[in-house]
């Protein structure tokens, strides 16, 4: 699927400590790798966002968002028919916020605060009701719960090659023993490096890749059986069991508000 390039606004500075950007994206879109001297919250009320950094990938379906620290190089990709509500936050306003890239939960209150803030003028009155609303939103974001929707990437070049291949073809069923023959390293070495550099076993990493990769198709309404097979699962029941084990709910319940 072709991906349209999204424009990254060139702001010399933020006009206020909190700045909102609304976008309606009918087709799949993405930015070039970039950074900026403020925190970014990539959030979509519809669609699925993927944020890529050197350390890994972060996935945000509705009711979740990606917190991107200042000066961190990243790319943001969105699925078709995405409604984005990005926030830019000055570093001075986020002293107690997360210092690393992560996916956070957007609860009902925070969702409504974002919706209302995105309706305000850019240069809202910081001393009036609008400024107080912005401060409540900042407070809510600072204490938002992190969720496990990230996929760490190893730094070893051999493992990077393996990971790139699996990201392109998640239904690849090769074992680590089979990969060792292709990569010129023993299965024991690859297993040790995978755990050391990602904190996950090869099997757990591949399962997380498949489950995170399924979210966009599920959000777009594709049948669970179709998604399961595309992700490399032999049966729908195996996919649902793995999904429930990782996310705590079934695929049908995951996108409920």
TrEMBL record:
<dbReference type="InterPro" id="IPR003313">
    <property type="entry name" value="AraC-bd"/>
</dbReference>
<dbReference type="GO" id="GO:0043565">
    <property type="term" value="F:sequence-specific DNA binding"/>
</dbReference>
<dbReference type="Pfam" id="PF02311">
    <property type="entry name" value="AraC_binding"/>
</dbReference>
<dbReference type="InterPro" id="IPR011051">
    <property type="entry name" value="RmlC_Cupin_sf"/>
</dbReference>
<protein>
    <submittedName>
        <fullName>Putative AraC family transcriptional regulator</fullName>
    </submittedName>
</protein>
<keyword id="KW-0804">Transcription</keyword>
<keyword id="KW-0238">DNA-binding</keyword>
<dbReference type="GO" id="GO:0009893">
    <property type="term" value="P:positive regulation of metabolic process"/>
</dbReference>
<feature type="domain" description="HTH araC/xylS-type">
    <location>
        <begin position="160"/>
        <end position="257"/>
    </location>
</feature>
<dbReference type="InterPro" id="IPR014710">
    <property type="entry name" value="RmlC-like_jellyroll"/>
</dbReference>
<dbReference type="InterPro" id="IPR018060">
    <property type="entry name" value="HTH_AraC"/>
</dbReference>
<keyword id="KW-0010">Activator</keyword>
<dbReference type="Pfam" id="PF12833">
    <property type="entry name" value="HTH_18"/>
</dbReference>
<dbReference type="InterPro" id="IPR018062">
    <property type="entry name" value="HTH_AraC-typ_CS"/>
</dbReference>
<dbReference type="InterPro" id="IPR020449">
    <property type="entry name" value="Tscrpt_reg_AraC-type_HTH"/>
</dbReference>
<dbReference type="GO" id="GO:0003700">
    <property type="term" value="F:DNA-binding transcription factor activity"/>
</dbReference>
<keyword id="KW-0678">Repressor</keyword>
<keyword id="KW-0805">Transcription regulation</keyword>
<dbReference type="InterPro" id="IPR009057">
    <property type="entry name" value="Homeodomain-like_sf"/>
</dbReference>
């Amino acid at each position: 699927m072709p991906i349209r390039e999204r424009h990254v606004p060139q702001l010399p500075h933020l006009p206020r400590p909190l700045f909102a950007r609304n976008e309606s994206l009918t087709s799949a879109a993405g930015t070039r790798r970039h950074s900026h001297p403020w925190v970014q919250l990539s959030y979509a009320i519809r669609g699925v966002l993927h944020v890529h950094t050197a350390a890994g990938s972060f996935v945000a379906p509705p009711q979740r968002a990606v917190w991107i620290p200042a000066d961190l190089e990243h790319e943001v990709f969105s699925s078709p028919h995405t409604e984005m509500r990005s926030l830019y936050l000055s570093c001075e306003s986020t002293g107690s916020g997360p210092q690393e890239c992560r996916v956070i939960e957007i609860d009902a209150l925070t969702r409504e605060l974002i919706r209302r803030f995105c309706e305000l003028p850019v240069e809202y009155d910081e001393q009036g009701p609008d400024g107080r609303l912005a401060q409540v939103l900042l407070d809510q974001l600072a204490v938002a719960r992190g969720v496990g929707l990230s996929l760490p990437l190893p730094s070893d070049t051999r493992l990077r090659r393996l990971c790139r291949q699996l990201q392109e073809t998640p239904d690849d069923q090769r074992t680590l023993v089979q990969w060792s023959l292709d990569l010129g390293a023993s299965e024991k070495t690859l297993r040790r490096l995978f755990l050391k550099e990602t904190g996950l076993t090869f099997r757990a990493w591949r399962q997380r890749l498949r489950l995170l990769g399924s979210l966009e198709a599920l959000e777009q309404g594709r049948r669970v059986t179709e998604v399961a097979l595309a992700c490399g699962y032999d049966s729908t029941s195996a996919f649902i069991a793995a999904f429930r084990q990782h996310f705590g709910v079934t695929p049908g319940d995951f996108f409920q508000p």
